[in-house]
Design a protein that fits this description.
single chain, alpha/beta, Spore Coat Polysaccharide Biosynthesis Protein SpsA, Chain A
């Protein structure tokens, strides 16, 4: 591909056994109003019909670049692959089961380009349950602060907003590719260091926190993105019920005790891992020590007795 025909935006879609959802997501991506686009699909050794479908689409549409990995490189490796092998100046991750309006890329790119200090843009969004129900009441309360001139305001606003605001959807916006690539390279070092002793949770929260210390996020006015939500607690009514009832009645009901403790243990481990990752990330920013300490203390306090969501 020559520079004259180089796409402005690369959409990277890591996939494993995408099924029918992949067909819908890819159709919507290829119907975008922004024409200067390539879609890079990295197939992580799918065992369903993904390979045959993708080879057929790539043969028909020159905007589609399909790569089948010789072995399963893991979810994180697959995300990193599409980012590192993109050719566009701008980049957007795409999950195989998300939904996008035709103007998604155009509106996100316009938002990003509206501010020279911005590193990411995204249309307004809703998260959906596995059954397609919209979580309309879960809204990020401090979205306008993500384009504040002060990096401390941006990072603190993001980390300390509601745990179920779906704020991590910004990872699926349109980015300045080099800014996102630099962030991913730093995180690979942090993750290698962090996983030496324990599992790492909330990587997306940590990635976005670091990116916000470097630049602004801008939200477009139009509703153009629907994120499929897969939370253990928020998409599972019984898990949520057991979790909160266990906190109050764990000494009285044996069933609640056994069931609830399972989810409490999982979420406590998740919370502790996430807090450790946030701590490591804040140390890599240019924020003052007292600012980092304040954010971490407030983060611990806010999520002491509740699950961390996105």
């Amino acid at each position: 591909m020559t520079d004259a025909t180089k796409p402005l935006v690369t959409v990277g879609m890591p996939v494993y056994n995408g099924g029918e959802a992949l067909k819908t997501a890819l159709t919507q991506m290829l119907a975008q109003t922004h024409a200067n686009l390539e879609v890079l699909v990295s197939d992580n050794q799918s065992t369903d019909g993904t390979e045959a479908y993708m080879r057929e689409i790539a043969e028909r549409d020159s905007r589609v670049r399909y790569v089948r990995q010789p072995e399963n490189i893991g979810q994180g490796g697959n995300f990193t692959y599409v980012l590192e092998n993109a050719t566009g100046e701008y980049f957007s991750f795409a999950a195989h089961d998300d939904r996008r309006e035709p103007f998604f890329v155009e509106s996100a790119l316009d938002a990003l380009q509206s501010d020279n200090e911005a590193v990411a843009g995204l249309p307004r969004f809703y998260a959906t349950s596995k059954r397609g129900r919209l979580f309309e009441k879960r809204k990020f309360k401090t979205m306008d602060r993500l384009r504040d001139d002060d990096p401390y305001v941006r990072v603190a606003s993001f980390l300390l907003d509601d745990e179920n605001a779906h704020k991590c959807n910004f990872l699926y916006g349109v980015w300045k590719r080099e800014a996102l690539l630099d962030t991913f390279r730093l995180f690979q070092k942090l993750i290698d260091r962090h996983t030496a002793t324990r599992h790492v949770a909330s990587i997306d929260t940590a990635i976005l926190s670091y990116a916000l210390s470097k630049g602004k996020f801008v939200l477009a006015d139009r509703l153009g993105f629907y994120k499929a939500h897969r939370s253990l607690v928020y998409d599972n009514f019984l898990a949520k019920l057991y979790y909160y009832v266990y906190r109050v009645y764990r000494f009285f009901f044996p069933v609640v005790k056994s069931k609830g403790k399972k989810y409490v243990d999982i979420l406590d481990e998740w919370r502790e891992s996430a807090t450790g990752m946030i701590d490591a990330v804040l140390k890599e920013t240019t924020l003052e020590e007292y600012q980092r300490r304040h954010i971490l203390e407030e983060f611990r306090r806010k999520y002491r007795n509740k699950p961390i969501g996105n």
